[in-house]
């Protein structure tokens, strides 16, 4: 098992490039199954554990998947007859495996997918996905830990109102509707940039989708979709994570390949704390200052403040002066990292769906365990600003969503390394 060992107290400076977005590439790779002709070539694919997992899911469904991690490219041929079953071993590893359900139902008229169940951040039901499939004429049934959707003939276009703008439900319904008979309207749809990327990809395959990025999406079903070449958008959460890394070390970092329009809420909240942010020719420049001000934040669906930046922002808020309140409204249980921050001497307490911080905390290095992938990044960020050495374990969470995180931080000047727990390298760091 690996560990990241970070010694705090170094200002980060320099440039860092963000990868293609994890939350865009997973739905796009799942949606590639819609193509019954030609091959899909997906570019700017980040080399993440989740990408390997979705590739395995697609292969288990009999698609031909060629992965070229060094070229950041995946080529998928899904023109053959596809299997309809996504097994538990994949869905358990990665919830986004549920996103094959829409394409399979559209292509085969039948899909059987293991129920994802809960995870470290909440119960995460899929009722809104299923409500959409049902409205399009599918019959839903459950048994032996699987959910099945079955349609007699083709799916039919329908008007679907989502009770909550769920990202996954919007994506699954959009892919199912892309090959349905007639027009589907999704109301109260999710508006995340990753939804727009998916709609663009489907349109590049020959689909007819308008309105992605607004709360009403109109999908006119087509008879067939064909392979295309698609570039994945940059990862706004990875970019935000490096913005916090710059701010928490009072550093001066330029982030290249970020799309500022995708990050308005994060930029605005960092500026409210006193962090200086400017758009330069090279990218987004972040200059941290000390002291920074405490603020209040509430996570919301896009364009609100993203829940996937909540734990990283909490690390920064711990170093701010005054009282700050961070409220999580998207997931019911995304505060597992709070106890780990307390182990680092963070002055933080949970009250219902909010966390209250009285700062600045005098953060101290400690042994901590990542509880989900953003928590993994957040604990490392807190380590950058702590006195002494922090050791972060359970790094399989980090590997789901960050490419070479410690190497990128080291290139910016962080004192950080990743060791296997069997390694004696750690002893060298323990002397500091
Ligand atoms: C692979 C991917 O893109 N993951 C992202 C996606 O997850 P995901 O697509 O799972 O997130 P959703 O937007 O669907 O979930 C948001 C909330 O809605 C609830 N819900 C969702 C569906 C449903 O049918 N019923 C229901 O009650 C969930 O339990 C959760 O509380 O969006 C989340 C919210 O921005 C991000 O944190 C995840 O990083
Ligand atoms: C919660 C996340 O991802 P997933 O939906 O894949 O668990 C995330 O990216 O922070």
From TrEMBL:
Its EC number is 2.5.1.7. This is UDP-N-acetylglucosamine 1-carboxyvinyltransferase. Phosphoenolpyruvate binds at residues 22-23. The keyword Cell cycle applies. The lineage of its organism: Bacteria, Bacillati, Bacillota, Bacilli, Bacillales. It is found in: Cytoplasm. It comes from Paenisporosarcina cavernae. GO terms for cellular component: cytoplasm. CDD domains: UdpNAET. It holds the Pfam family EPSP_synthase. Residues 6-409 form the Enolpyruvate transferase domain. Cell wall formation. Adds enolpyruvyl to UDP-N-acetylglucosamine. InterPro entries: Enolpyruvate_Tfrase_dom (IPR001986), Enolpyruvate_Tfrase_sf (IPR036968), MurA_subfamily (IPR050068), RNA3'P_cycl/enolpyr_Trfase_a/b (IPR013792), UDP_GlcNAc_COvinyl_MurA (IPR005750). The gene is murA. Keywords: Cell cycle, Cell division, Cell shape, Cell wall biogenesis/degradation, Cytoplasm, Peptidoglycan synthesis, Pyruvate, Transferase. HAMAP family: MurA. The keyword Transferase applies.
């Amino acid at each position: 098992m690996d560990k990241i060992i970070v010694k705090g107290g170094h200002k980060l400076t320099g440039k860092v490039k963000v990868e293609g977005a994890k939350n865009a590439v997973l739905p796009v790779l799942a949606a590639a199954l819609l193509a019954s002709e030609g091959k899909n070539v997906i570019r700017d694919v980040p080399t993440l554990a989740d990408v390997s997992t979705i590739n395995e899911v697609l292969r288990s469904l009999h698609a031909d998947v060629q992965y070229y991690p060094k070229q950041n490219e995946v080529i998928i041929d899904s023109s053959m007859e596809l299997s309809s079953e996504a097994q538990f071993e994949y869905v358990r590893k990665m919830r986004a495996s549920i996103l094959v359900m829409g394409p399979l139902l559209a292509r085969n008229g039948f899909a059987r997918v293991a129920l994802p169940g809960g995870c470290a951040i909440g119960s995460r039901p899929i009722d809104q996905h299923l409500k959409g499939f049902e409205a399009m004429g599918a019959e839903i049934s459950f048994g032996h830990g699987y959910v099945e959707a079955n349609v007699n003939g083709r799916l039919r276009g329908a008007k679907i109102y989502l009770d909550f703008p769920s990202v996954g439900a919007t994506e699954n319904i959009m892919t199912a509707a892309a090959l349905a008979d007639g027009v589907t309207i999704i109301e109260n749809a999710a508006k995340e940039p990753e939804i727009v990327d998916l709609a663009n990809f489907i349109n590049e395959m020959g689909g007819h989708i308008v309105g992605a990025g607004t709360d009403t999406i109109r999908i006119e079903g087509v008879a067939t979709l064909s392979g295309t070449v698609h570039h994945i958008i940059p990862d706004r959460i990875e970019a935000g994570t490096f913005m916090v890394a710059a701010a928490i070390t009072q550093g001066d970092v330029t982030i290249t390949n970020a799309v500022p329009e995708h990050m308005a809420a994060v930029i605005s909240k960092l500026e409210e704390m006193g962090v200086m942010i400017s758009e330069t020719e090279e990218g987004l420049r972040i200059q941290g200052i000390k002291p920074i001000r405490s603020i209040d934040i509430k996570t919301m669906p896009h364009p609100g403040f993203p829940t996937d930046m909540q734990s990283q922002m909490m690390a920064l808020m711990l170093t701010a002066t005054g009282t700050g309140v961070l409220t999580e409204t998207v997931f019911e249980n995304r505060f597992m990292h709070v106890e780990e921050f307390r182990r680092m001497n963070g002055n933080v307490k949970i009250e219902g769906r909010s966390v209250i911080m009285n700062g600045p905390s005098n953060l101290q290095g400690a042994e901590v365990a990542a509880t989900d992938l953003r928590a993994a990044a957040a604990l490392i960020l807190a380590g950058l600003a702590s006195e002494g050495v922090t050791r972060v374990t359970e790094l399989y969470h980090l590997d789901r969503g960050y490419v070479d995180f410690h190497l990128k931080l080291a290139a910016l000047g962080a004192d950080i390394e990743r060791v296997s727990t069997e390694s004696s390298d750690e002893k060298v760091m323990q002397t500091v």
